[in-house]
Amino acid sequence: MNKLIVIVGASGVGKTTLAHALCSKQKFALAYEQHNERPFQTLFKKDSKYALANQMDYLLYRAEQEYEFRQGDTPALMDGGFDLDFHGFTRLFHTRGLLNDAEYDLCRRFYTHTRSLLPPPDLIIALSADSQTISARLASRNRINIASSEDADLLEEYVSEWLASIPEKKVLKLDVTHENEEYTKSVDIILEKIVS
Fold first, then answer.
1. How far is 136 from 177, CA to CA, in rounded Å?
2. Alpha carbons 104 and 90: distance in angstroms, whole number
3. HSE (side-chain half, CA atoms, 13 Å) at 150
4. CA–CA gap between residue 93 and residue 50 (Å, rounded)
5. How far is CA 163 from CA 26, 51, 136, 142, 156, in A?
6. C-alpha to C-alpha distances, 88 to 20, 83, 119, 163, 196, nearest whole angstrom
7. How far is CA 159 from the centre of its chain?
8. Strand, coil or helix: what is 4?
9. pLDDT digits over 150-195, tens only?
10. Count of H helices and E strands in the chain?
């Protein structure tokens, strides 16, 4: 079965930038979150009634990506991923009242059942950065953002709770507050971890 590595963290922490940096050093099959291409993302940004459709679309889309990658023969790298979409963003939207209890439970049931059918990632790269860095990165990018810089601490809390349930050897935590755009330090650490 093909290896799957996921990069997780709050919006604006630098998941996509790190994915590009890794791909410049080693060959990976790569999957992005694709905010602009998702059919409910813009609708959700304008009207919260699309929150459930948006989350179910993301969960299904990310599960489909995982399944496809596991069938391949090139190590796979995901920017975000199935687990982050549930443990981070679905929980966040429930907390913010964008998903009601029944909608959250539907997402939970789908996530739990689907994860039981798909093996978990082989390595989770968990990125963190200070709130000022995340705010600056969010402000500088040209894409749809549902989660704001104010959500970063709550997302980090939810992701940390999920990561606490994962064996330590499968998680690599990196503070990227002071990383350059090529992620020079982090890329070397990650590639060494993948090879070992």
1. 11
2. 7
3. 2
4. 11
5. 26, 25, 26, 29, 10
6. 22, 8, 19, 11, 29
7. 10
8. strand
9. 777 888 899 999 999 999 999 999 999 888 878 888 998 999 888 7
10. 9, 5
